[in-house]
Amino acid sequence: MKAVLDHVGIAVKDLAAALAFYRDALGLEIEAPEEVASQRVRAHFLPVGDAKLELLEATAPDSPIAKYTEKRGPGLHHITLRVDDIDAALAQLKARGTRLIDDQPRQGAEHSLVAFIHPASAHGVLVELKQSANRQSAASTVPLAVSRYAVGDLELISLSDGLIRLDGGAMFGTVPKVLWEKKAPADARNRIAMAMRPLLVRGARTMLIDAGVGDKDAAKFHDIFGIDRTRSLSVTMAEAGVAPEDVDIVLASHLHFDHAGGFTYRDAGGRIRPTFPRAQYIVRRGEWEDATHPHARNRASYLADNYAPLADAGVLQLVDDDATIMPGVKVRRTGGHCMHHQMVLIESKGRTAAFVADLIPTTAHLPDAWIMGFDLYPMDTLAVKQQFLKQAIEQDTLVFFEHDPALAAGYIREQNGTRFVQPAS
Ligand SMILES: [Zn+2]
Ligand SMILES: [Zn+2]
User: Fold this and answer.
1) How far is the CA of 391 from the centre of ligand 2 (A)?
2) Residue 127 and residue 162 in one domain
């Protein structure tokens, strides 16, 4: 067993006061907090070299952290050692007669697996073992899994068209790499992995929002963008029990190739056809005009094969304004990313959801200044993002992150000026 120090856990009673010391006085950076629902605890990590400090805040009176600070006051709570294989580590410790609090690993912060060793066996220290999320066995987490959500009378099904890799610098605009690479590690070509997650909405009609990158493009294109379509739209739609013929409406957030590529496919005879044979395809008129008249700055994002055949097939429907597309589903122009980029707002029986597309492509893009370099009008992105997030927090909106590699959807929370996402269960 090779164990390395992962973090030191500190129980706090007054988070603001603790931050005044650990963040402000020591000058440490703080990451977005993470809820560990099973422990009724909120964890705030501050990186220190290769390890982190973890400030632990109780979220309920019956939280173990609340009991700890009540009894002993705030202070050092545990140390965490990271191991490659937590099952093997626990088996070894058991064989040596070590007293364990957890016989079996359980879910910890940051999608990890954890287990505690009793202080009686660790000379008075509470020791946590941890196995990071990316080391978990394939069986425990299906990447880009199909997930279902109920919003009033509507059923929302998050699908996948696999992964695409885009330049990390371009994805985070003016944010320095030393900051963004902690959230999204870059590969040897400076690319970060992003998901493509179309959303299916089932209500009065069956609607698909965006359709990923599709499979019309050549090997060179797939190499440049590191495309991995193991979890393609056809695979995940089949898992969800939805056939291409079931789709009544295909709605475009915008026509960039990572959103509209799956709108069409190349048949055996080499002809490009609509992928969803019964569907009307709904596109905002301004976006259609921009996509069919590209300029030097946006030309690489618009591939005519993805949308021109829709007009030829007579299945294209252009909408001029913010409109209701089907009961409970309306579009709202955001601009920013491109002039006519739109998000999709969903409402049923007082519950709300939003598919924000490239307005907030991943959960890493929640802070105000984390805006894509790709955006044509970044100041518009900033204004709309601030306004949207404020409303999403107030209305407890379920927000879908189309490009997030780890999380399909969650609820936005804000604490001490830091926004974070509480994953939807
Ligand atoms: Zn885009
Ligand atoms: Zn995109």
Assistant:
1) 23
2) no
